[in-house]
Amino acid sequence: MDTKPTIRYSEAFKLQVLRELETGKFRNMKEAQRAYGIGGSETIAYWIRRYGKSSLQRKVVRVQAPNERDELKRLMNENRRLKEALADAQLDKMLGDAYLEIACRTAGIEDVDVFKKKHAGRQ
User: Fold this and answer.
1) pTM over 0.85
2) Is residue 61 part of a domain?
3) Maximum Cα–Cα distance across the chain
4) Range of 49's domain?
């Protein structure tokens, strides 16, 4: 059975990597991981949590009350319904314009815009 050896990093090495992340030598944890050949995708994240370097964590903590989550869902659903209604209204307008153009052509009216201006607001 061929097993990988367990690699142990010294405290000084861990703190050096975190210091270099803080100073901006590396843009992110992956870059530092590649530069030093650190195995494990969560190793540096674990060090950040362990040594209290929360400024290096790229997480956004969002605190919401249950009613705020419900409000967000309600607003997203309303937004979706309004977008659908707008699309329907645009299709109706396009159909109306097409019918008007056909009716004007059938009635022998050459310019639809002149007809619209002349009969604006009348049924």
Assistant:
1) no
2) no
3) 91
4) 11-56
